[in-house]
């Protein structure tokens, strides 16, 4: 059956579903519904999303809405997985920035923790830094005690330093930001718990080399090293927390800053008085023993004096009774 390109008549039969265009190259269905390819609202142009290859559509929003769902999400690994999705380069850059850019206002929070579009705090760095500080505190505190002891017999390893080293930095990194987060929730400061944990965790970076410097057997240098580390840590926290507080709750700026200063001051005193305060047991005991020996010898000499005096008097009596003398 022959059809002309300009023939408008449609033959009867199965072929009447198609008509031949003038250019004899495109075919368009006739008499049956077919969506327009140029229509962006067409449902045929929308590719269905599937999850895990099971054929089920992916949920639109998995964020918890009720208080019960929020509590349950705190015990799910998927909730914290996104905060551990960082590379080694990211953690290294954040550690360096926490030391060299600690005095820049909002720099660490808005530039270092940002991936260019949104802020991306992590929990991998704070956990790693805190556990490293726990290990260094437990080791260097006992080593400093050994170096300050004159005799090996007077040295005794304190296993309690390990439990105290775990509890103190962990409370400083996770519990203290939790308390601040509750305070910020009531005063209307837009600073999340993860941001605070990230800032406080990276603020512990100066303390790690400081624990090694505290091995120097000098009390004055120990105080100086710990003061310098505390000031550097405090600058990072204050510079990145004060900005949101002053923008959202300026009346609470003074109490918030004073509470942060007090927390760092207490943390500094705990590190010095709990981990790096040791006495010279060997030297004091030896000096006391030698002093006691001198007293005893002195007492012995004092006791010999009356005996010598009696011997002299008896010798004089013998001389007087001897007729030959």
What is the structure about, briefly put?
The chain has 325 residues and is mainly alpha-helical. The chain contains eleven helices and two strands; from the N terminus they run ββααααααααααα.
Shape: globular
Proportion of residues in extended strands: under 5%
Reading the helices and strands in chain order gives EEHHHHHHHHHHH
**How many strands?**
2
Q: Could you say which structural class the secondary elements and strand pairing correspond to?
A: mainly alpha
- Total DSSP helices: 11
Structural account:
With 325 residues, this protein is mainly alpha-helical. It has a domain at 84-275. It contains eleven helices and two strands; from the N terminus they run E-E-H-H-H-H-H-H-H-H-H-H-H. It has helices at 67-73, 77-81, 88-100, 107-112, 124-147, 160-187, 193-202, 207-213, 219-248, 253-275, 281-321, and strands at residues 18-20, 27-29. A two-stranded antiparallel ribbon has the order 1-2. Strand 1 and strand 2 form a beta hairpin. The longest helix is centred in the last third of the chain and has 41 residues, at 281-321. It is globular, with a radius of gyration of 41 Å.
Layout of strands and helices, then pairs:
Blueprint: E1 18-20, E2 27-29, H1 67-73, H2 77-81, H3 88-100, H4 107-112, H5 124-147, H6 160-187, H7 193-202, H8 207-213, H9 219-248, H10 253-275, H11 281-321
Antiparallel strand pairs: 1-2
Helix pairs in contact: 5-6, 5-7, 5-8, 6-7, 6-10, 7-9, 8-9, 9-10
Which properties best describe this structure?
325 residues; mainly alpha; two-stranded antiparallel sheet; 11 helices; 2 strands; 60% helix; 2% strand; globular
